[in-house]
Specification:
Elements lengths: L1 E3 L11 E5 L7 H17 L2 E8 L2 H5 L11 H10 L4 E6 L2 H4 L3 H12 L1 E7 L3 E2 L5 E2 H11 L2 E5 L3 E2 L2 E2 L2 H10 L2 H8 L3 E8 L4 H5 L4 E3 L11 E9 L3 E10 L10 E6 L10 E11 L7 H28 L1
Parallel strand pairs: 1-4, 2-3, 2-5, 3-4, 5-8
Antiparallel strand pairs: 6-7, 9-10, 11-12, 11-16, 12-15, 13-14, 13-16, 14-15
Helix pairs in contact: 7-8
């Protein structure tokens, strides 16, 4: 996959089949659209292309209600590459871009990308004041010489799958339900930092992660997770998200206790894949009660992860 941060100076001669969106999360709805788009582009001898924006348009247009991201841009790019997309165009989203008339923007796509087909959802819109809705895009298609393809959403339990819906599930701690919509476990990745080392003294060493505030995190609580270390080593673990009310009630961190692991992870990247929430975070009156609960959490998490492995094996 070739990545650009601007529209092309000269379009590919075979033309492109294009879709446009933020594609945050790359959930099952996105996967269906992109899978069909890539297969169709190959069948008709054109390149498959994704045009996305960074930052999220709402960061620029509605700063007070800016959404949290489900996927870092680098991870989005990696997953799009795995899906077989030929071209990824990442346009910086600015106020000037937001004020561009829809017809001018679409004309640029035809001239500078060689857009021959545009695939979008039924509620899609672009351009100044969202004037470029599907009705306007259909009218432009007849004048500018491209085909507009409307893609229907993917439904789960009677509701469309969306990034907004997934963020809501994460806010409830329902990481297992979020994974069903994503088609994979929800994951966060960050550098392991030094903490107070209380876990070591209690007999449960933890790797501490500070999550940037612009990224979504599940609700505070204790979770069964997979910990993926550098070198692709994957181990079962439990993770606590919160402020540690039994101690200092300080900065919100993700603390990960990796089963049967004694290595040094400081300064390394750790990926945490959330499987199921065990319980909310709570304050314990004494250390003995906390240690007893953590031991119980570990046993419950081991059972959940073993069952997950068995399901994957059957799949």
């Amino acid at each position: 996959m070739i990545v650009y941060e601007h529209l092309l100076e000269s379009p590919p001669p075979e033309g492109v089949v294009l879709t446009i969106g933020t594609f945050d999360g790359l959930h099952r709805g996105h996967q269906k659209l992109l899978g069909e788009l890539v297969a169709h582009a190959r069948a008709v001898g054109r390149l498959s292309a994704v045009l996305t924006f960074h930052p999220h348009p709402r960061v620029v247009l509605q700063s007070e209600a800016a959404p949290t991201y489900l996927l870092p841009l680098e991870e989005r790019s990696r997953l799009l590459d795995e899906m077989g997309v030929d071209l990824l165009i990442i346009l910086p989203f600015t106020r000037a871009l937001a004020d561009t008339p829809a017809e001018d923007f679409v004309r640029d796509l035809c001239v500078r990308l060689g857009m021959r087909e545009l695939w979008v959802g039924r509620d899609f819109a672009l351009g100044r004041g969202r004037e470029g809705n599907v009705h306007a895009l259909q009218e432009l298609a007849s004048r500018l010489g491209y085909t507009l393809h409307i893609v229907e959403p993917v439904y789960e339990n009677g509701k469309p799958i969306s990034s907004t819906r997934i963020r809501g599930l994460l806010a409830e701690g329902a990481v297992d339900r979020a994974a069903e919509l994503l088609g994979r476990p929800y994951a966060v990745e960050a550098e392991v930092i030094h903490g107070a080392e209380r876990g070591r003294r209690l007999g449960f060493r933890t790797a501490n992660l500070r999550l940037p505030p612009e990224f979504a995190a599940p609700a505070d609580g204790v979770y069964a997770v997979w910990a993926v270390m550098e070198g692709s080593l994957r181990r079962g673990a439990i993770a606590n998200i919160g402020i540690r009310p039994s101690f200092d009630a300080g900065e919100r961190l993700i603390e990960v206790h990796i089963f049967d692991y004694e290595g040094d992870l400081y300064g390394k990247r750790l990926r945490v894949e959330f499987v199921k929430r065990l319980r909310p975070e709570r304050r314990f009156e004494d250390i003995q009660a906390l240690v007893a609960q953590v031991r119980q959490d570990i046993e419950e998490a081991r059972c959940i992860l073993q069952a997950a492995v068995a399901r994957e094996g059957r799949g």
